Amino acid sequence: MVSSMRTRASEEVATAVREGRPVVALESTLLAHGLPPGHNRKVAARLEAVVRERGAVPATIAVLDGVARIGLSDDELDRVCDPDAGLVKLSQRDLGPVLGLGLSGATTVASTCALAHSVGVGVFATGGLGGVHRGAATSWDVSADLGVLAGTPVVVVCSGVKSVLDIPATLEVLETYSVPVLAYRTDAFPAFYLRDSGLPAPWRVDTADQVAATVLAHRTEVPGDSGVLVANPVPSDVEMDRDLHDRLLREGLDLLRSRDVRGKDVTPVLLEHFHSGSGGASLVANEGLVVHNAEVAADVAVAISERSG
Ligand code: PSU
Ligand code: MN
């Protein structure tokens, strides 16, 4: 385990890792750039609380003043959730510049996975995975989340990928990168706000222990360093209405075109359109799914440490 000058695990996280106790990494981009101010701080606290209730240690990750922090204090979480703090969105390739230049930012799935792995944390919960964007054949916009999963042995629990992406292409790339995709208690690959993307998932699992068995076999028996994706659908009681979802999606895609939004701004602009256009329904779904993912990730982390113990 590395705790370098510029990457520091909190005392609690470092101790848990050393003792082989379950830890769940959480990302900060969904807080800083995916949820509105105020609401984001409540979700941050709820995520950490549910991970603890399930018997694991939460490790929210962000870069603050040139130090990658694995496990944040309450004050540090306040800062991540404060829009005036101006934390930029950091993918994996942005880590060198912010660490080297002493700057701050919120980590995406890609950079959170990489930092979690660097301190020995192998389970991570998020909302939606980044993927292949629509039109990627000409824009080349494919999230670094996929490339990092290809080479980082971390379990990522998410609710699939948003329907603003090209979901069939995203599943193809995950296959190319040899990332196992396990749908949790469903046969369908989920689409973030919706439980069913219309595409079947490659594998179905029904318990955290089945996830743990798969992860341990994948890590120990299968050559390569790819991660494992667990796709856990949004809970039925907070799933978005499909017609409202489809309308907001059409409008959101038009908005991107008319404002010429590109690159790292695409995801935050679309999320904001859903939040303002759905009268809050998308926020309820977003919070519900990310909390559920944190719970499942904690169960998986506990099951992995029981099987390894
Ligand atoms: N999906 C969401 N909410 C988010 C993100 C994705 O529903 O906040 C964030 C995650 O941090 C993910 C990142 O890693 O967006 C992907 O961004 P990009 O497509 O620019 O790689
Ligand atoms: Mn992108």
From TrEMBL:
Keywords: Glycosidase, Hydrolase, Lyase, Manganese, Metal-binding
Catalysed reaction equations from the record: D-ribose 5-phosphate + uracil = psi-UMP + H2O
Record text on cofactor binding: Binds 1 Mn(2+) ion per subunit.
InterPro entries: Indigdn_synthA-like, PsuG
Active site per database record: E27 (proton donor), K162 (nucleophile)
A Pfam family hit: Indigoidine_A
Residues engaged in binding Mn(2+): D141
Residue ranges of coiled coil: none
Enzyme category, top tier: lyase
Binding site for substrate: K89, V109, S143, A144, D145
EC code(s) of this entry: 4.2.1.70
Quaternary assembly: Homotrimer.
Record protein name field: Pseudouridine-5'-phosphate glycosidase
